[in-house]
Amino acid sequence: MDPEVLEFDIGLGGGGSSARDGDDDANIGLDVDEDMADSPAPSILASNSNGGGFGGGGSEIYLPEGDQMDLEPYEGMEFESEEAAKAFYNSYARRVGFSTRVSSSRRSRRDGAIIQRQFVCAKEGFRNLNEKRTKDREIKRPRTITRVGCKASLSVKMQDSGKWVVSGFVREHNHELVPPDQVHCLRSHRQISGPAKTLIDTLQAAGMGPRRIMSALIKEYGGISKVGFTEVDCRNYMRNNRQRSLEGDIQLLLDYLRQMQAENPNFFYAVQGDEDQALMSNVFWADPKSRMNYTYFGDTVTFDTTYRSNRYRLPFAPFTGVNHHGQPVLFGCAFLINESEASFIWLFKTWLIAMSGRPPVSITTDHDAVIRSAVMQVFPETRHRFCKWHIFKKCQEKLSQVFLKHPTFEADFHKCVNLPESIEEFESCWLSLVDRYELRDHEWLQIIYNDRRQWVPVYLRDTFFAEMSITQRSDSMNSYFDGFVNASTNLNQFFKLYEKALESRNEKEVKADYGTMNTSPALKTPSPMEKQASELYTRKLFARFQEELVGTLTFMASKSDDDGDIITYQVAKFGEDHKAYYVKFNVLEMKATCSCQMFEFSGLLCRHVLAVFRVTNVLTLPSHYILKRWTRNAKSSVILEERASDVYTNYLESHTVRYNTLRHEAFKFVEEGSKSLNTYNVALGALQEAVKRVALAAKNEGRTRMVNGRVMGDSARDRANSIKHRVPSQPLSEDDMDKKIRELTNELEFANRKCEVYRANLLSVLKDIEDHKLQLSIKVQNIKISMKDGL
Predict the structure, then answer these.
(1) What per-residue confidence (pLDDT) applies to 656?
(2) Which residues form a coiled coil (predicted)?
């Protein structure tokens, strides 16, 4: 009787996991679908439709049914093909509880065809520790030892008839076999079936990650063992899917960018490496408006890598900032395929070129060691901050068990980070927190503590980040594309949503401009400073300044130290001296710094400095405390630092400086003069003499005039008059000469006043022109938006 001929066919379709995820036998990826074992077979001989094998293509699996499934290999057993022998041995291995792989082969000397194969247990042999390959490099994550010298194997060789026959079979293993409920974890039995792939594709398109997809599959199939693969396999399949789709997506992106640059030469884009080989390269682009926005608001930048996370299908990373209304503004976008340190360095350098080579004062990124290294190399002078809100979000994942066990931990953690006013207070609070919840040895908390200088607010207050509040997340920190790009967005949809986001953000800025230019805020105090701020700042920024100004009414400022040039004030609420802030005020330079460092961090003066200004009679904001980037003219090309109202403002400022300087000197005079009776008498005499001289100077003020910025006394006027107005034939008397001098001086004063009025009027006209230009721009934008809505 002829021996039975058995034929098997298998198919993996790329569902196997990568070599780094498990056993050493990475070249084997076989699976046999258990569900097919129960279906009836038309005959003992099954056809081999596609010629699959271990790690083979996407063909169906054909298995003999009934008693044939219980067959054990034996010498002389024949198969129609090598692939059928592989499939049979692997199905046998699945029933017994071990994994298989291809070990060796022998080729024909005549034509090089394979004529002999050996299939072995995956634990056959021992790992080859090649010293030459490993001695020069450190292995960071050594793989577990899986080979233990097992001898179980199946050898087959090809007959002259073309069939394959078993020439050797070793049944015994030298290790424990895997029970049926764990056999799906073995490499050669892990396969993603066609229906499973379809379900994964559907759920991935909906934005679900590997963990949630595996949960759905386990529920669908009735258990992990019936799914037939692991979460690692699912993750790798999704990654490969994403990689394949990105190749086509990159081409779409490049076509779009080329078209945009053809329409506007100021549109900037760049590809890492050769553009002709760019299908798997990183890409950066910035439209003309983004590049122009950076010239106005490029002092602080956020590099948002939110869209790299698994729940998004886009490796998309925008550069954003904050405009004069506190709204997010775009500075360019990147499409990242390769996320190595070299790629981030290329991206940051390319972005810097597009932004005219001017680095920002500060940059905020996600908490990422690779990004940090790239920032240090490209922006060595820029202050780098990790996004605190991303760390808080990651905290929920890394400390989920702590959150469940201690419901109060999250609130205490936020307070520890946000509320301390000094570094010492934070350090004390942190130690108390980790001790209270027994987390001193928690690995992730130790990592973020070591990086505390780059995300804890108390370490960052001396640098400008354009944030109005340290404890609350501002709208500007939300992603520019929130509400447009979401978990299910692919690149085909991205272009329209990208342009829609740009239009929406532009429309919001236009509306904010319109509100600032055409409405006046309600003033809450009679302070000239509040009126001045209402005319300078945008509406949103003025509201924030007004909040600080009104807040000064609850604070008391008292002098605590005076070293001559600088006076230190203690500022606190009544009865709360233990919560005091300290303001150092240089009277002569009109400069103040507060221990809260709000101006350095946000660009607006805090209520503590404003309280000191109130008690020192500073009536208006000094010009160096008005950042143009927060004003209504932030994007103006005409410098309107001096407006018609500046005549009054300059008067107030100069009067304040004189008043404060005299008072400061007078206090020192009084302190020195009162030390003894002798110094008192000298000081009193000097003071009485000073009073007489000041009175005389005030009386003669009309006779002392300013000419070209210099004071001219009587003798100077005499010399000037004798040169310019001497008439030899008719010498003037002294009275006539004085009269003539007074007339000429009055004429000069009148001319100076006229020049000042003309100057003020000219500046007023320039301001009106600039305002009119801005209003026309707003109207044009509104017309464009309405036309698009109509279409």
Answers:
(1) 62
(2) 734-761
